[in-house]
């Protein structure tokens, strides 16, 4: 198998609200759009983020039409978590989880869009699985 592209597809009530949030605060651009659908990309992310309107007629399987992506976490690893935290605060985005560092080296914070999709920015302070200070 050869994978040529990848995407995560999220069902939300308000496609435009979620798309605008990623475009405005995280630099995504619109790759494709139609009624109830938008695909966003960034060249450095490696996958597209797709929003589908909940209940969209073409959504398959049928059992997922009313399911929502609220509570889902979309994580992006960044180089300077503290700078991103300051930038997001300056843009007036409500912080869901203030910046913190886990024992395993993950320094992160979380925000949420209007549909409840959580965006988490992460910086690894040391290699996962390594004790802090061990090379």
UniProtKB/TrEMBL annotation:
InterPro entries: Glyas_Bleomycin-R_OHBP_Dase, Glyas_Fos-R_dOase_dom, VOC_core
Protein name as annotated: Glyoxalase family protein
VOC domain mapped to chain residues: 4-124
Pfam family, one: Glyoxalase
Domain of life: Bacteria
């Amino acid at each position: 198998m050869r994978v040529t592209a990848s995407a995560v597809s999220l069902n939300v009530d308000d496609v435009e609200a979620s798309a605008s949030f990623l475009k405005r605060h995280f630099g995504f651009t619109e790759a494709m759009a139609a009624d109830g659908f938008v695909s966003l990309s960034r060249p450095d992310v490696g996958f597209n983020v797709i929003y589908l309107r909940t209940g969209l007629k073409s959504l398959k399987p049928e059992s997922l039409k009313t399911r929502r992506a609220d509570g889902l976490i979309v994580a992006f690893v960044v180089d300077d978590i503290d700078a991103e935290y300051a930038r997001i605060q300056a843009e007036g985005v409500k912080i869901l989880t203030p910046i913190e560092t886990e024992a395993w080296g993950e320094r992160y914070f979380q925000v949420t869009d209007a549909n409840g999709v959580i965006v988490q920015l992460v910086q690894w302070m040391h290699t996962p699985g390594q004790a802090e200070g061990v090379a």
